[in-house]
Structure formats: C-alpha cells, structure tokens
Design brief:
CATH architecture: 2-Layer Sandwich
CATH class: Alpha Beta
Oligomer: single chain
CATH topology: GTP Cyclohydrolase I, domain 2
Largest sheet: 4 strands, antiparallel
Structural class: alpha+beta
Order of helices and strands: EHEHHHEE
Number of helices: 4
Number of domains: 1
Helix content: 25-40%
Strand order of the largest sheet: 1-2-3-4
Shape: elongated
Number of strands: 4
CATH superfamily: GTP cyclohydrolase I, C-terminal domain/NADPH-dependent 7-cyano-7-deazaguanine reductase, N-terminal domain
Length: 118
C-alpha cells in the first residue's frame, strides 16, 4: 500500500448556510490522502498504473463549483466522486477547511475530516 497526498488545494467557492456566503463566497483549503496498492507502478513507471492526481484535482475542482450549505456534505460528495472514478483507491481521507468563517469568533478556519474505506 502507498499513499498519494494532495495538500493545500486552494479554492474560492460559494458554500454556506447563510445567503451572504452563497453570494459573496469564501476561501477553502482541501487536503486529500489517497491510499492504494502501488505494486505495479513501482516497477513500470507508467501513469496508467497509478492514480493520476491531476484528474483527482479536476474532480475536486468540479465539486467545489456546486454550492452546498454544509462543508460536511461537500466533503462527502468529493469523496464519493473520487471513489467512484478511481476504483483502485482503497482508502481516502479529506480535510476540508472553510477559511475565516462568518461568525463572531477569532479563528482561522473551521474544518471537517472525513474518511472512507472500500
């Protein structure tokens, strides 16, 4: 087993419970960990034998364009799409952070962590 990590993906998107969030938008950061068997790719040096992380990024980018009220829901959608598209992934985890959320508190971000296993 091995892991590919996509770290610090940065998006400006329109998610949130409040209408202002869906109108004005906000910053989001995403970290993904993809776990799968590296077996063949370690010898072949062939993209076809691994997970093309640029394709994974495109899936995340597409999902970030679809508004959600809750980041929990958004994280689950991203995981489900990736697991559906890349059948060799055995385990996936996501950390999705909403940067500077609109609340009366001094905090950098609110994050959700979600993991799914085949």
């Amino acid at each position: 087993m091995g892991k590919i990590l996509l770290e610090g993906m940065d998006f400006y998107s329109f998610h949130g419970v409040y209408p202002e969030e869906r109108k004005i938008g906000g910053h989001y950061k995403i970290d993904l960990t993809l776990e799968f068997y590296f077996g063949k790719v370690l010898k072949s040096d062939d993209l076809a034998d691994t997970i093309d992380y640029s394709s994974v990024y495109r899936v995340v980018e597409e999902e970030m364009k679809i508004p959600s009220k809750l980041i929990e829901h958004l994280a689950a959608r991203i995981i489900d799409r990736i697991m559906e598209k890349f059948e060799t992934i055995q385990n996936i985890s996501i950390k999705l952070s909403k940067i500077n959320p609109p609340m009366k508190a001094k905090l950098e971000a609110v994050s959700v962590l979600l993991e799914k296993e085949r």
